User: Fold these one by one.
Assistant:
Number 1:
Amino acid sequence: MNSNTASEHSTIGEEHLSVPASERADFVVVANRLPVQQVVTEGGEEWRPSPGGLVTALTSVLQNHNSLWIGWPGASGDGDPPLTYEGIRLKAVAISPAEHDNFYLGFSNATLWPLYHDAIRAPTFHRHWWQTYKKINMRFATAAAESVAPGGTVWIHDYQLQLVPNMLRQLRPDVRIGFFLHIPFPPSELFMQLPWRKEILAGLLGSDLVGFQVPQMASNFSRIARRQLGAKGTDSMLEYDGRLIGVGAFPITIDTAQIRALTADAKIRERAREIRRDLGNPEVVLLGVDRLDYTKGIQQRIRAITELYADGTMSGDKHVMVQVAVPSREADAHYELERHSLEQVVSEMNGDHSLVGSPIIHYLHQNMPFDELLALYLAADIMLVTPFRDGMNLVAKEYVASRTNLTGRLVLSEFAGAAAELRGAFMVNPHDLDGIKEAVCLALKVSPKEARARMSRMRRRTLRHDVYDWAESFLASLQHVAAVDSREQAGEFDPPEDGKS
Ligand code: F6P
């Protein structure tokens, strides 16, 4: 087994860089997907911005620099992506259908995704998937190496690209490299299952700064790097291969200003009233919004609600639930199975408890424009976010940010990264069906005064920072670590002691 794929490749000499120096970017973002995606409309296929706060945040950071975004344009449709998006240059990394099967569906989403999410489904380990993962990571690293200006900054995102930092460092030791993991980083007991654990660790340690969603994940990583690769140092600053690497928690958040503006929009407020009317003006609207993913605990939540209808705590004339399940990774057998069993549970629930003309659960398996999601947040009295494991979960934060009149209650899994910040939620262990039922009952019965107090506590915390602050704080730390490392290289710094920070 190769211990370090990048070491097979030597530094790229200036003369071998295919992009002329004048066209290289000072700041490069490398992510699995480009910030635009191809969608099918009545007029044919067109490129639209990919949804999500990350694109919004990075777009504004990138617009202030001579910058470039490197990513995969997606599997659907034909035609090349645009050359720019909102003034940012785009560089597409091509992935063939066979590579897509091994790299995206295989190693990324059937090995790493379940392993990093508490092995809720058994991870599958295939050597040929790993070979393609290395190959595609090298393709991304090479694209970044060719495109970044001397001494520039490259920010690499997420679990699909964990080898890129070290590959890029081998090719371009002059650049500053940051990596942020959007999903959980697992505890040692799980991570150790990975046959290529040392290569992944060495890949990440090619960064100057490795960022995680919560401190626990940062210390999982540092501890494993010390044990497995003999890195020295603390949970927040490691020394490896003669360099310093910063490690820290940078909890991602939302575009609060955008949500504030949209929730004040009269059209969206009217749409929220219309949704409640369409649902039959029930006393209580419960809402779930998730990608259709087995990590999200959607079935467990619906089973708990079904039991509350069965025991008479809830009734079809007073309580209605809306569950949005956004289609995701549909070519993966686990996801296909999850969809079938979820739809079975939904249909059983409706069959057993609905009234003529008014189903108790409105199930929407579709992509939803953000305006419509916002209207749903405004229409919902109780939001249910109950993943078995989640890096952060921005839906929980979006719901809280949208509740400007301090109404609304949040039932939240203690295993979502957001739980560390949203202490005013009704917390649940998503594996505990009775616990979910109890939390929903508490949310149904809570006094308006206590509900307001809980919501204002969560809003204070959520509105303190936005996604722009998140990006700035990561980039400021990256600059700081790189400066400390340069001082150390110049012999002006004592490397960190071993142990915890
Ligand atoms: O949460 C991790 C993530 O990769 C996000 O970045 C992305 O929005 C989501 O999962 C869906 O991922 P994809 O459709 O690219 O597999």
Number 2:
Amino acid sequence: MIPAALIEQLRACQHLAILTGAGVSAESGIPTFRDALTGLWQRYSAEKLASLAGFSKDPALVWGWYEARRQTVLRAIPNPAHIAIAKLATYVPQVTLITQNVDDLHERAGSPEVIHLHGSLHHPRCVGCRRPYTFPDPIVYEDFEPIVEQRINPPFCTHCGALIRPGVVWFGEPLPVRAFSQAEAACQAADLLLVIGTSGMVYPAANLPILASRAGVHVAEINLTSHALNQADTHLDFSLIGKAGEIVPLLVDAAFG
Ligand code: BJW
Ligand code: ZN
């Protein structure tokens, strides 16, 4: 059941900010990080696989893991949550879509602009000259078993010969400065912030709902389980519990259908 007050606020909204996390892509078959049993950090070591120290120690292991995840994403398709979010841009005058996800499912669902706070699986770069690296064709390996710990030969830069690294933000690394400042500005200037499918445990992204609520922006959470955004001082105006792929289309239809 979608609260009538939220439907009204969405309908009247001039600037909508949306912050998404792994839960929005879960129904496309992409594992989240912290969900019990299925979360990536339940099965794999973040220190070994998602840190610069881990990459420096064993780049082939880290590349195997990221390549398996990229292959999973290439085979995945946007779900009704991505599609309903993309539709919002046609109804609301200004939409700022901010994602912590490293997949491209928002783009493939048709969202015109996406702010990626934690980078992308699809945009690796050189650790030396920082030039972007383009994956060779064929992009999809037919015989690649996704999500298996297997080593692959890391790519090297054709310009300077240095190692190529996955284009994601690892623990202890700064977020892209422009992306984060755009996200901060939007979360404080919007009328409404939808926080969809994130545990709100990773900083500084987890500060965005706090900034919004301090600026008087209404905040609505959509999640399988309520995290109350992990902050006693975040005023959550609405908490909609359920699958993003069901609730987001219901909300968009209720407001604009
Ligand atoms: C559904 C659903 C369905 C499921 N429908 N919902 C302050 C305090 C403590 C620590 C720190 C702090 N500030 C910084 C830190 C350190 C650290 C941090 O936050 N640690 C915490 C874990 C304690 N942060 C950093 O290191 C960041 N960098 C930094 O702070 O730099 C400072 C610096 C400045 C200047 C110079 C140098 C440094 C970087 C963080 C990078 C995070 N990277 C990752 C990996 C990306 C690469 C990869 O993919 O491998 O990003 S970690 C991982 O978590 C990934 C995600 O984007 C991120 C957030 O996860 P998300 O999306 O919330 O997923 P889950 O799994 O946690 O939650 C899923 C949710 O979906 C759940 O709520 C489910 O219920 C829900 N759900 N199905 C609806 N169908
Ligand atoms: Zn280079």
